[in-house]
Amino acid sequence: MAAAKLTKKEQDDLRARLLEEQQELREQLASIEEDSFAATQSEMIGDVGLDDEIADAGTITFEREKDLSIEQNVRDLLGKIDRALRRMEDGSYGVCSACGKPIEKARLKALPYADLCIKDAQARARR
Ligand SMILES: [Zn+2]
Questions:
Q1: What is the pLDDT, as a whole number, of residue 59?
Q2: Ordered per-residue pLDDT tens for the chain, 127 residues
Q3: Helix, strand and coil percent figures for the chain, each rounded to 5
Q4: What angle (nearest 5°) sits at the alpha carbon of residue 92, between those of residues 6 and 81?
Q5: Residue 89 CB: number of other CB atoms within 10 A?
Q6: How far is the CA of 119 from the centre of ligand 1 (A)?
Q7: Is 112 exposed, middle or buried (0-12, 13-18, 19+ CB in 10 A)?
Q8: What is the C-alpha separation between 1 and 112, in angstroms, rounded?
Q9: CA 45, CA 51: separation in Å to the nearest integer?
Q10: Ligand 1 center to residue 67 CA distance, Å?
Q11: Distance of CA 110 from the midpoint of ligand 1 (Å)
Q12: CB 2 within 8 A of CB 94
């Protein structure tokens, strides 16, 4: 399968970037999980006045929902990075998963975990 036209050096660079990003995202995920744990703990103490309590409960819920959506995004990205790394292993990296043509190098350099060419990514976004 010679469709991926990246040189070995280019793919190695992209792999290094993916691994670096994967590391950062894992750390981010760990700190989000720590934060939600801390929020649960402080919520359980509950020795605040009634007005404060209501305000705090609102804030805590908001913060938690924000955390959850960030967490979702981080997990999503980690999944994409995982798939990209696996595709490097089996030699299908850099090939569009929709049309089977090579993904533009510039696109891979901007988005190393991309698994669609520009045309198919745009088509999918429009749907
Ligand atoms: Zn395509």
A1: 74
A2: 344 478 999 999 999 999 999 999 999 999 988 887 787 776 665 555 556 666 677 777 878 888 888 899 999 999 999 999 999 999 999 999 999 999 999 999 999 999 999 999 999 988 7
A3: 75, 0, 25
A4: 90
A5: 9
A6: 6
A7: buried
A8: 19
A9: 16
A10: 33
A11: 17
A12: no
| Nearest alpha carbon to residue 81 among 44, 108, 118 | 108
Kindly give the distance from the C-alpha atom of residue 118 to the centroid of ligand 1, in angstroms, as a whole number.
7
Ligand 1 centroid – CA 111 distance (Å) = 15
Three-state DSSP state, 95: strand
Q: What is the pLDDT of residue 60?
A: 73
> 99 CA to middle of ligand 1, Å?
4
- CA 59–ligand 1 middle distance (angstroms): 44
pTM: 0.74
Measured in Å, residue 122 CA sits from the centre of ligand 1 at: 10
